[in-house]
C-alpha cells in the first residue's frame, strides 16, 4: 500500500467579502495513512472533503506538507496525480465526452500514444468492470449507478496506486449505492473514502472522524462511527 503523510497540513481560505481575517477550513493535521481502506466521516462542512482533496493536490495545503510515497504534493503534483486518482461525488464532473468509450479513451490520452492502443485499453477496462455493453451508449442515457461506475472506470483505467473518492454513493439509490460500494471495496488499489454511508465506513480498515476542521477520532471504524453517532445524538 502507498503511504500518505500529512505533517501539520492545514487549509485556510479568505473570508467572504475579502476581509483581512481568514477562515480555517482544516486545522494543522498530522497523520499517516497506510491502510488499504480508509474512511473519512463527519457532517457536511466538517472539512473531510478538503482533507481528501489534499491527497492529490486538488486543494493545496496553506500550512505544513502533504507527502505521498515520498513525493511532496506541492512540489511534485503531476507525479502524485499519476499515483492518486480522484472520483467526485457527481460523475457529471468527470463524464465530458459523448459516449462511454470516448470518455474512458480520453482519460488514457497521456498513457498510450496511438488511438487504437487507447481504444483497446479503454475497452479492456470497461470489460473488467462489467461495463462492456455500455461502451457505445451516450453518457446522458445512463442511470445514476452506471454513470458513477463509468466515472470510476475512467479514473481507474490509468492504473493509479490510490483512489480517493468523495462521497461516491451520496447521489445513488440503495441498489446502486451497494453496487458502487462493492466495486470500491473490491479494488486492488488503496482507497480513501469521504462518505456519509456509515455502513460502508465500518467495512473499511480505518476511519477518521472530522468535525469543525479537526480530526477528532481516528482508528477502528466501528469505534469511530459510534463516536460520530454519539456526538450527533448529543446535539439533538
TrEMBL record:
<keyword id="KW-0547">Nucleotide-binding</keyword>
<dbReference type="InterPro" id="IPR050095">
    <property type="entry name" value="ECF_ABC_transporter_ATP-bd"/>
</dbReference>
<feature type="domain" description="ABC transporter">
    <location>
        <begin position="4"/>
        <end position="234"/>
    </location>
</feature>
<protein>
    <submittedName>
        <fullName>ABC transporter ATP-binding protein</fullName>
    </submittedName>
</protein>
<dbReference type="InterPro" id="IPR027417">
    <property type="entry name" value="P-loop_NTPase"/>
</dbReference>
<dbReference type="GO" id="GO:0005524">
    <property type="term" value="F:ATP binding"/>
</dbReference>
<dbReference type="InterPro" id="IPR017871">
    <property type="entry name" value="ABC_transporter-like_CS"/>
</dbReference>
<dbReference type="InterPro" id="IPR003439">
    <property type="entry name" value="ABC_transporter-like_ATP-bd"/>
</dbReference>
<keyword id="KW-0813">Transport</keyword>
<dbReference type="InterPro" id="IPR015856">
    <property type="entry name" value="ABC_transpr_CbiO/EcfA_su"/>
</dbReference>
<dbReference type="Pfam" id="PF00005">
    <property type="entry name" value="ABC_tran"/>
</dbReference>
<feature type="region of interest" description="Disordered">
    <location>
        <begin position="1"/>
        <end position="20"/>
    </location>
</feature>
<comment type="similarity">
    <text>Belongs to the ABC transporter superfamily.</text>
</comment>
<keyword id="KW-0067">ATP-binding</keyword>
<dbReference type="InterPro" id="IPR003593">
    <property type="entry name" value="AAA+_ATPase"/>
</dbReference>
